[in-house]
TrEMBL record:
Name listed for the protein in its UniProt record: Transmembrane protein
Transmembrane segments: 12-34, 40-60, 72-98, 104-128
Keywords: Membrane, Transmembrane, Transmembrane helix
Length: 144
């Protein structure tokens, strides 16, 4: 059996569900609400954000095990890397496929913001739960 933490398993499960739902909803919106705006590069966007999310959770898990005091620094570094890599990818795509540039850019920015909110919510709730558990553990130790 592969050793995987509960938090990592929860994030991967929620992240996978979120990726499937956001990709499907995005495709439906582009096909029906904005007919004619679906573009060939659309599937790349949800896949990019899904893979980057998996990379992030593996990095956070490794940091949690080996250098927990650097978790905030890693969080900020990953956000910067994601932003820089996203800008590079958007520029390359928009230069390579000019006729789809506007639709791609607007869709990519929408996914970027949606994933930013999702990941922030997940890690914020994770930190709140971690602090509550730590507080309860200290409380139980002083009672015993």
């Amino acid at each position: 059996m592969v050793n995987i933490s509960k938090t990592k398993r929860n994030f991967i499960g929620l992240h996978t569900l979120f990726a499937i739902l956001s990709a499907a909803i995005g495709a439906v919106i582009l096909h029906f609400a904005l007919p004619g705006h679906y573009f060939g590069g659309y599937p790349f966007i949800p896949v990019y954000f899904y893979l980057f999310g998996l990379f992030s959770i593996y990095m956070f898990d490794a940091c949690r095990l080996h250098a927990p005091q650097r978790m905030l620094l890693l969080y900020l570094a990953i956000k910067m890397v994601k932003m820089i890599l996203s800008i590079i990818l958007v520029l390359i795509y928009c230069l390579a496929v000019r006729e789809e540039a506007k639709a791609f850019l607007l869709t990519f920015i929408s996914f970027y913001l949606i994933y930013l909110i999702f990941e922030t919510w997940f890690f914020f709730s994770f930190e709140v739960n971690r602090k509550l558990k730590k507080k309860n553990k200290k409380k139980n130790e002083t009672v015993a």
